[in-house]
Amino acid sequence: MKVPHLIEWSRRLNLTKVLRSSQVIMTVLLVLCVPMLLALLLWDLVANPNPVPAVITIAGLVLLCFFFSYVFVVPDDLTSSATDRTLSISSKIFAHTRQGLTPEATLGACRIILPETLASAICITDGKQVLASWGEGSEQCPAGTSVAFETTARVMASGATSVFTRDGDAQPGDLFPRLRAGVVAPLKVRDRCMGTLGLFYPRASSIDMRQTALATGFAELISTQLASFELERQDELTARIELRALQSQVDPHFLFNTIGTIASLVRTDPELARSLLIDFSNYYRQTLSNSEELVTLASEIDQGMRYINLMQARFGSDRLCAVTDIDPDVLDCRVPPFILQPLLENCIKHAMRETGMLSMYVRARRSEGRLTVVVEDDGVGMDEATLAHLFEARDAALEGNDDIAADGSTPRGCGLALVNVLMRIKFFFGEESGIHIESELGKGTRATVSLVGEPRDLAQSPVHVRA
Fold first, then answer.
1. Do 121 and 266 belong to one domain?
2. So what's the pLDDT on residue 323?
């Protein structure tokens, strides 16, 4: 039988099904044999005065009983023990590889895998260099060693497990040259080979279907963890890109109108113009920064109040006011940046009436592990149809809409800002956190941000894979 066929057969082999099939077969044999032995025992007792055949028949029945117990009881215990051991090994490997193929993680995985095989050494590579090795001769293959092994290159190119033997002298670049045979399996993520796992043996006779299946199985186990890590890494990169995009949104209408407002105050109220310039400078310094770290709630509130100050200068204090009611105990709570200012911006863009005052209220409390931030206004509100589609992102600029909002800016759609904020809230705090919007037409709108538990710190998260 060819090696590839052996590999495929070993991968499809299900020990539990084999044991169950064996139980069915033995049950049929026992059903056939026991009545025959009982009939033979009865005939010996009645027709044959010699007790020896009867004793032999009884002994046969006893042996059948023991064999019956072994077939039906012992395999279940063995299967349960093997399942527990497999789950334990998988859990230990996951604990090491959940952060990707780093040298430390792969070395930990090598130390766990090697004792479960008959191999003398194990090596994990990224196809170009050794990430970690363990076992006999591993000191000759430290992390960072360039890989020029022909079998590794073949596995990286084909994505299929390969069994090799060395009949002659070792070639330059061979891993573990004293070991004469081995199995190399690919580590794949979305059909792309990210590296290899190799088991090395002193002789070819040590490699059987079980060893090949172990190499393939452990490689697939690590590949599954790498796929999970890759998805998490993509989520983190997406969050970084979204944050940078939000930070870099410089609305030209807002920029020019604010500069024009400050310029008009230079002669009439220079002290107010100076204060607004400071707020304007600090506002854009924070907006354009590349910070990917969580910020304090106090910093978020300061940023929001700077925006309100600039809008008050634009529209006048008789058209716009904001009141804050913040529990001092929550000022140091860490929150994602840019979650408050977009909510305040939406109030001004979509809630201001043509005349009269727009009042906004910002409150923050913490209770039972949940931080709640409320942004409320007494503006125009919205109907149920608008509220139902509020989180459907709309980009007016992409649709060619050149309408100007109340603050002079081009509206990008309330949904776009809210979806952006909501996605980052869920990324940092999980699915239990989110935004709840309540509104009544003609009376106002309330946005409640709920942050449950402690946030994940994006600045401390790994975003690279060695493989």
1. no
2. 92
Give me the CATH number covering residue 143: 3.30.450.40
- Cα distance between residue 443 and residue 382, in whole Å: 9
381 torsion bin: left (phi>0), alpha (psi -120 to 50), beta (else): left
State the burial class of residue 173 (Cβ atoms within 10 Å of its Cβ: 0-12, 13-18, 19+): middle
User: Environment class of residue 133 by beta-carbon count within 10 Å: exposed (0-12), middle (13-18) or buried (19+)?
Assistant: buried
The per-residue DSSP string of 131-144 comes to EEEEETTGGGS-TT
Residue 321 DSSP SS3 = strand
What proportion of the chain, given as a percentage, has pLDDT over 70?
65
CA distance 411 to 443: 22
- Other beta carbons within 10 angstroms of residue 217's beta carbon come to 17
Spell out the residues 6+ positions from residue 402 whose beta carbon is closer than 8 angstroms to its own.
Answer: 410
Q: How far apart are CA 13 and CA 2, in angstroms?
A: 17
Instruction: Report the domain count for the chain.
Output: 3
Out of 228, 261, 282, a domain closes at 228
Band the pLDDT of 458: cuts 50, 70, 90: low
Residue with tokens 């049929």: 28
Q: pLDDT tens digits for 359-409?
A: 999 999 999 889 999 999 999 998 888 888 777 654 333 343 434 343 444
pLDDT digits (tens, 9 = 90+) for 93-148: 776 666 677 788 888 888 888 888 888 899 999 888 888 898 888 888 888 888 87
H-state helical runs in 124-269: 150-158, 209-247, 252-268
Rg of the chain in Å (alpha carbons): 36
Full residue range of the structural domain in which residue 187 is found: 103-228
In angstroms, rounded to a whole number, what is the distance separating the alpha carbons of residues 30 and 59?
Answer: 15
Whether residue 237 is contained in a domain is answered as no
Do both 28 and 9 map to the same domain? yes
Mark whether 180 and 252 lie in a shared domain: no
Is residue 408 classed as helix, strand or coil in its secondary structure?
coil
283 and 185 housed in the same domain: no
